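re: ur question from earlier - yeah i can do the single chain one, its not a big deal. heres the input i used so u can compare w yours
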Amino acid sequence: MVKICCIGAGYVGGPTMAVIALKCPDIEVVVVDIFEPRIIAWNSDHLPIYEPGLDDVVKQCRGKNLFFSKDVEKHVAEADIVFVSVNTPTKTQGLGAGKAADLTYWESAARMIADVSKTDKIVVEKSTVPVKTAEAIEKILTHNSKGINFQILSNPEFLAEGTAIKDLFNPDRVLIGGRETPEGQKAIHALKDVYAHWVPVERIICTNLWSAELSKLAANAFLAQRISSVNAMSALCEATGADVSQVSHAIGKDTRIGSKFLNASVGFGGSCFQKDILNLVYICECNGLPEVASYWKQVIQVNEYQKTRFVNRVVSSMFNTISGKKIAILGFAFKKDTGDTRETPAIGVCRGLLGDKAMLSIYDPQVSQEQIQRDLSMQKSELDRPPHLQPASPTAIKQVRCVWDAYEAAKGAHGICILTEWDEFKTLDYQKIYDDMQKPAFVFDGRNVVDADKLRQIGFIVYTIGKPLDSWLKDMPAVA
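and the output i got, formated as tokens:
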């Protein structure tokens, strides 16, 4: 029986290994993590992450050929294939701070693999890493190998949170990069055989190591670029009276462009887009390509501009002051169908509103009060640390109250900001909400999910990103 071990039981490692176990009953899969509460959660009825369909997959396999353990060294030593899916945050100090990936956890994992291994192993990069990371990891493993052979493969994930299980069941492609040596090709085929249990062979792409590593960064950069492009157009649409939804629909009909990732919003989020683009910028700078670096940097700058623009619109619309005013925040996760808040635009928007002394009442169906307080009170460098190295309990922000009901969030509020496109926000009883709010009552739709005309008929003053402005808003400056 082939044995697979995955180091890291997070958003990538957990779901990926669960699907491999389901589709490959002849393979034993163990997911290991040093953070014990996470392992306890994976072995319980309340998994540590929310992902549609994940519960069913885990329940079908757990205890049969899928296991979760904190005994990292034992299972790494026993495995034939070791996936490494640890955090690679952006460096906050030293060379490349603010752009380069911090490979501290990756290097630590590599040294541990070399230390405990007694048999030959295939080591698979599952984390998003800079180009040439495999070469560095290879050096660490070979210099500490004690005669054991290691083959390094790059197998980047292309999952979209909220549809991760569907993506794993039916991937567009599986990418495997390895050395162009007989041993490297043998390792590629070993991993290809795992995925071939359910993925058509023509969708399994085999490349060299560097192409696989760069393809992941490039894919995320291209997706983020599309979002920033349509968000840049949304600002122009508001200035000219055009409707960004109509513009998106028109250009999306061009088969060369396509319709995906053309929804204007308050900005992109998630653990990968910003981190990977910063990484790409750093790699370009290190390779003497400042013009290329500057091009990709602009994608992030437009994303920051969109969040700032949204906050300015809220403040300027409400008589240029929100001090002491209650504002309801509907949605905190970076997208619907996930509880993940990493780099969510809601953090930037909420901090901007708090900076103007607003009182926030926040509701998200999948994000806990503790997580919201952590995100708003802690620095990004603290949030990027493993859970066991983070402060035990976040400092509560007095201006922030978390509730478990959209109606409660909006009660007595001056305005509502919709920051996540949860389906339930489309079907709320907005008449009931309006009746319980201060007047004039504002809705600032950062995801274009509400029927603005219906809300205006009720009496709301409505701002939707990239749409023709309400007559009230036309009289207000766009920048506070």
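The longest strand covers residues 2-7. not sure if urs matches, ping me
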